[in-house]
UniProtKB/TrEMBL annotation:
CDD domains: NPD_like. It comes from the Eukaryota. It holds the Pfam family NMO. Keywords: Flavoprotein, FMN, Monooxygenase, Oxidoreductase. Its cofactor is FMN. SUPFAM superfamilies: Inosine monophosphate dehydrogenase (IMPDH). One of its GO terms (molecular function) is nitronate monooxygenase activity. Belongs to the nitronate monooxygenase family. NMO class I subfamily. InterPro entries: Aldolase_TIM (IPR013785), NMO (IPR004136). Signal peptide: none annotated. This is Nitronate monooxygenase.
Length: 379
């Protein structure tokens, strides 16, 4: 039988499974049901205002009395962008819509506003501290000392996201209670933060197994909880991570097709993930791309990712994080409404073909049963 781990003890949960925060696809029902099933759900606060986050926390507290976490994006440093770069992306998108046939698209790309986003981080942190949530996880960087200290005073557990052993050591040293190691297989955005060199981030990504192995050379996994993320979809993935030094796993893609996610995940996205299960011809490649948001993230290859592929089109301009999305996402939203997948944003980890049409409770129960069967050599 699966035994307790450093992670289950730290978070006071039954099973070493964390539902990855998935902005903007995470519903309160998903968070609550994962926690009720013995794992730990996580709110993806990302672009929520303080008020939205507070409402979300309150809603989840009506659905569960078990621990759950809140995840935030560490804000970027101020970036200047030129109007020339904005116009270049507008031009590229206009051409793409015509050349790759985004049918019936009436979006006036020339008039889409591109402006700095409001920094929501301070109001999110205020709510997290006031509400004394049990866990705060973060990605794209690290929390400043004063916030770490306040969290420690309030007994709020901290999880940072690392994509290299060096980032993991950094996060442990600043006071994180656990570190989530994000392998290159992972769906969604890369949490890389110690380098801003895009070539390093895109070309030198480390697979989960190697990342665990490298990190445990420097951090003793028997005394510090490491959380494995990237491509973990079943009991084999869980056992593999546990036997490689992790104290638990953080799973995203598997929960994208959970019943509780259906109201936020476009149907065409959900179907693409589920159809790959029984038909290898529908198992499309995933790519690491900056096409949608300006920050590297993994999703299924589309006309948009092909166009903004740095290897193919070295000279194509991509706007930085928080700007590129202001021009691209309106097209993706229209494409999702009209089921034109080649223009959709289809976040998925490399192992997405193991998605199932199930509730969150069934997902957790199935993974735990598989893991226990493996331990008893039934499989
Ligand atoms: C749709 C989607 C959205 C994500 N959004 C976030 C997020 O808001 N914050 C975060 O820390 N990680 C986010 N991630 C990354 C996950 O935390 C995790 O690293 C990843 O899901 C693990 O790989 P897997 O998808 O193969 O399970 C997201 C992942 C996906 C698939």
């Amino acid at each position: 039988m699966l035994s307790k781990t450093l992670l289950t003890r730290l978070f006071n949960i039954q099973y070493p499974i964390i539902q990855a925060p998935m902005s903007p696809l995470t519903t309160p029902e998903l968070v609550a049901n994962v926690s009720n099933a013995g794992g730990m759900g996580t709110i993806a606060a990302a672009r929520m205002t303080g008020e939205q986050l507070r409402n979300e926390i309150h809603k989840i507290r009506t659905l569960t009395n078990k621990p759950f976490g809140v995840n935030v994006f560490i804000p970027p440093k101020d970036i200047e962008i030129s109007s020339q770069a904005i116009e270049s992306v507008r031009k590229q998108l206009k051409e793409l819509v015509i050349n790759k046939n985004l049918h019936n698209c009436n979006i006036d790309i020339a008039s889409l506003p591109v402006k700095p986003n409001k920094d929501l981080f301070p109001e999110q942190i205020e709510v997290i501290l006031n509400e004394k949530v049990s866990t705060l996880s973060f990605t794209f960087g690290y929390l400043p000392d004063n916030i770490i200290n306040k969290c420690k005073q309030l007994n709020i557990r901290l999880i940072g996201t690392a994509t290299t052993a060096k980032e993991a050591i950094f996060l442990k040293d600043i006071g994180c209670d656990a570190v989530c190691l994000q392998g290159s297989e992972a769906g969604g955005h890369r949490g890389s933060f110690l380098t801003s060199d895009i070539d390093t981030i895109e070309q030198s990504t480390i697979g989960l197994q190697s990342l665990l192995s490298q990190t445990t050379q420097f951090i003793d996994p028997t005394s510090y909880p490491l959380i494995a993320a990237g491509g973990i979809m079943d009991g084999y993935g869980l056992i593999n991570a546990l036997t490689s030094g992790a104290s638990g796993v953080q799973m995203g893609t598997r929960f994208v097709t959970a019943h509780e996610s259906a109201k936020l995940v476009p149907e065409a996205h959900r179907n693409l993930l589920l159809e790959a299960k029984n038909d290898v011809n529908k198992l499309y490649p995933t790519v690491l791309t900056r096409a949608y948001t300006g920050k590297p993230a993994r999703g299924i290859r589309t006309a948009i990712t092909d166009h903004f592929c740095p290897n193919e089109n070295k000279n194509n301009v991509i706007l930085p994080w928080q700007y590129q999305s202001q021009l691209v996402l309106p097209l993706c939203k229209f494409a999702a409404e009209t089921k034109q997948t080649d223009f959709m944003q289809l976040w998925a980890g490399q192992n997405y073909a193991r998605c199932e049409n199930q509730s969150a409770t069934a997902i957790i129960q199935q993974i735990i049963k598989e893991a226990n069967d493996i331990l008893q050599c039934k499989n």
